[in-house]
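Chapter review: from sequence to fold.
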Amino acid sequence: MGFQFKSEMIDQYLSQGYLVFRGIIPPVLMTDLRVEADKARRLAHQLNGAQTQRIQPLSNYADDLNLSPFEDYTNLPELKDAIQKLLGHPYTHGHLDIMGLLVEPVNHPWHIGWHRDGVVEVPPEAYDDEIKKELSSVWHDLRHYNQVNCAIYADSCTWFVPGSHLRQFDLPGERQTTHQANLRKPPAEMSNAQAERYYLDHCRSFPSAVQVHLGPGDFMIYRNLGWHTGNYITYQPRATIHDIVRYEGKTSWRNRWQEIKHKAVTRWKEQKTENKK
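The token string follows.
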């Protein structure tokens, strides 16, 4: 039996902050996607380095890849129907001008660090009242911050804290760690096995975190304002479509947020320069 949307999925997404459409990508399309995903993985490592996390956007690589399977994914009726039932109209799930492919590292495991999108876009030191106020106006607005991981191969890299998307405050033990250098590259004395365990412990120690296991053809949508992270290993092929569910109606918020982010980071850098004098 193929994927079937259930009404309780709406409550799950709103309350937990993430939802997985199990097996929604049909095997025939999966086969076509894997052919191009394997090319894209090789290209990602060739162009961006052995430790890269992604190649993005795919539209930039039309000369190297056959984008037709990704266009078929974008136009997949089952996905279009599921997104409309979940969020309504007009939301879209596939955009080649944004879509990337997440890949595995080659040399050593690494960890992207715990974060909330929207917040992590500005360094913690630059986080100010203006940003808090702006985020408050859109935090619970479903037109923003719906992110996608769709697994072409099995993928268990993503961790999420259910329900954290509903809170603009942090609980004890919730701490952004994306700035930690030892997560991006393990200390020289660590073997890959030691580093893998170290990063896994870092995931498990975060309060209420769950590991999201995606099988081939599983589509995960999540509110990336909630606490989440990625933990990457070398020995398992990864080819996961990374995108957003985009609201296609009119909104001026995106441009305003870019302006506020730029101002906050500029103020922070100026303050750092002044403090050095």
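Two observations follow directly from the output. The domain at 8-276 is CATH 2.60.120.620 (Jelly Rolls). The chain has one domain: 8-276.
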